[in-house]
Amino acid sequence: MLDSKATKLRIGVLALQGDFAEHIHALERADQDVTALAVRYAEQLVGEQAVDALVIPGGESTAIAKLVDDGSDPIFDAIRSRGLAGMPIYGTCMGSIFLAREIEGSTQGRLALMDITVRRNAFGPQRKSFESEIEVAEFGAEPLPAVFIRAPIILKCGPQVKVMATLAEGIVMARQDNLLVTAFHPEIVDDNRVHRYFIDMVRESLKRDGRTNPAPETAQRPCDLARSAS
Ligand code: GLN
Q1: Ligand 1 pocket: which of 17, 60, 189 to mutate (most atoms <8 Å of CB)?
Q2: Is 98 exposed, middle or buried (0-12, 13-18, 19+ CB in 10 A)?
Q3: Does the global pTM surpass 0.70?
Q4: In the chain, how many domains are there?
C-alpha cells in the first residue's frame, strides 16, 4: 500500500532467487519516492502492508519452477491473485519466463499470467551473452542499452500484448496492461528508463484505484498455476 506517512510507493522485488539486489538499487536510484523491498513471503502481498507492485528479477527459471512445483509456498498464489487484480508486475529475463503463459517445449512451473510464448536461452549459453542497443518508441530517439544474459525471446504474443522492442531474433520487451517484461537486464546499466517506465505504471495503477490498490485479504481464486505434469 502507499506509505501514508512518507507517501512513498512500495515496490517489492521477489527475492527467492536471482539478482533482486540490483533491482532494489535500480528502483530507488530511479525515483526518490520509491521504497523498494525484498519480498519473500505471501504476507507481503496481502492486506494493509502489501506492496503496490512487484519486480521478478533475472535468475534461473528452472530453480523458481521447482519452488512452484513443490506446491507448499503460498507466495505464488498471492502473486497470481494480485496480478489478476491489476497489481503491476515487471519480469526481467527469468521473470519474463515466469510470467509467460507458454514456455516452448516445457511444462515447468510458472505464473502463466501474460499471453506470451517464450523460448528460453534463445541466444545460446552464457558465453553468448551480449550487450546491444535497442529502440523503444516510448523512450524516444535515444537507443536503450540492453544486456542479454542467457536471455529468452518472446516468440508469440496475444492480441492484448503491446510489443515495445524487438531484435532480429524476436520480441525483447512487451506490455500487457499491468504486466511488463524485458528479455534483457536494465538493472545492471546506468540508464534507468525501464525502471522509470515501470514506476509510472505503478503510479497510474494507484491513481486509477483512487491512490489505493486494495490487495485481496486472501487468495481470491484457487491456484491454477501451471505446473509440470510430473
Ligand atoms: N536462462 C535463464 C532461464 O531460462 C534466464 C537467464 C536470466 O534470467 N538472465 O531461466
Answers
A1: 60
A2: buried
A3: yes
A4: 1
